[in-house]
Amino acid sequence: MDRTGLSTLRRALHRIPEPSWCEFQTTARLIEELEARGIEDIFYGAAALAVDERMGVPDEETLSRWHDRAAAAGTRGDVLEATAGGLTGVVAVIEQGVGPTVGLRVDIDALKIEEAAADDHAPAAGGFRSEHEGVMHACGHDAHMTMGLGVIDAIRESEFQGTLKVFFQPAEEVIGGGKAMAKGGHLEDVDYLLSVHIGLDHPTGEIVAGIDGFLAVSHLEVTFSGESSHAGARPQDGKNAMQAMATAIQNAYAIPRHSDGATRINVGVVEGGTASNIIADSVRMDVEVRGETTPLMRYMAEKAQTVFESAATMHDCTVELESGPSAPSAESDAELAAIVGDIAGSLEGIDRIIDADGLGGSEDATYLMRAVQQRGGLACYVGVGTDHPGGHHTATFDVEEESIRHGIEVLSGAIERISLERP
Question: 394 and 199 in contact (C-beta within 8 Å)?
Fold first, then answer.
């Protein structure tokens, strides 16, 4: 695709953002783009991922609402049937001679954010603002999908010898899709894996050859249960779940940091109570813990569990902990990062190459990376800089579309070089 084609595709995807495991219309559009290219080996629905390994799947009402919306938009019936219940995502396989199998992972879901409508926001001014109110591509996944398709085009015209597999992964934003796609069967013969993200506070023209420092992450849903009572007349008869939760929150942030590396904890959602004069008998909170390594994340999770159980005991309540989506830590292999950096250095428009940089957050691409590495393969996570007016996960986020071309040229060049050099 030329620049115009890349822009047109990215903007079309930007208009139809869908949240995690609800990417029905997006999945269908990707399949149509692949079929238009004459690609025959396209896997979707249960053929693309391990259904039972999905995490963070929304409730049936949410899935049905987005499924119905996709149907109303004219989405293909065969795709809707195959993806019903949240079986979204696509794996495309391109065989091109004898050689290694190289994978490329891009993510496809959007965020529950209302997109800016002001005239100084390029998607609004350009007529490609989100058509789905309350949801937008605020992290560049529309650009990632465009890169994935652009890489396929470039590789088919290149001297690449081997098999290319492109994983269009759902549910990254809830750390929910990486494990399911890693265990879906298509990764088992992958020798080399590249993943990509646009932006990450790097400007247009800057490439991070290999991102490291992924924090392992785990989500917890915590429910405190007590007994209600009249807060004025008989406070002594109640067992205050709200007070137990307040104690738990305060003490969770006091968990000692670890000398082996970075650790994090955050209470992001608290819900409960019915009225100011009623002692709350049930409250819940959503918590995440992170660690520079997977053992450090587990350290935080174990300490948090102790804190929550102790807080419940202190206030004569009970507590239930339910584990949610999680992802391990991972590191990019220097051999692949060196190839990415060398390719980037030869391209027009690339002004600066950073050999390695930390993400400072978490990513479920780590499931795919570690699966390849544990079988003796190599994996690398590439950062493609872009100038964006608003930060990631904000209503004004946007990408400079020239960066999409940078990403395609870097990734396709690296994939072709890998097939020739086999590091």
Answer: no
Name the DSSP class of 70: H
Tens digit of pLDDT for each residue in 208-233? 999 987 899 999 999 999 999 999 99
- Length of the chain in terms of residues written: 423
Q: Which amino acid is at 127?
A: G
CA-to-CA distance for 71 and 74, rounded, in angstroms? 5
DSSP string covering 369-383: HHHHHHTT-EEEEEE
CATH 3.30.430.20 matches 3-214+330-421: no
244, 249, 250, 251: CA torsion to nearest 10: 90
Strands, E, within 10-77: which ranges? 41-44
Tell me the Ramachandran region of residue 179: left when phi exceeds 0, alpha when psi lies from -120 to 50, beta otherwise. Answer: alpha
216-326 adopts what CATH topology? Alpha-Beta Plaits (3.30.70)
- All CATH 3.40.630.10 domain ranges of the chain, comma separated, are 3-214+330-421
pTM of the model: 0.93
3-class SS of residue 59:
coil
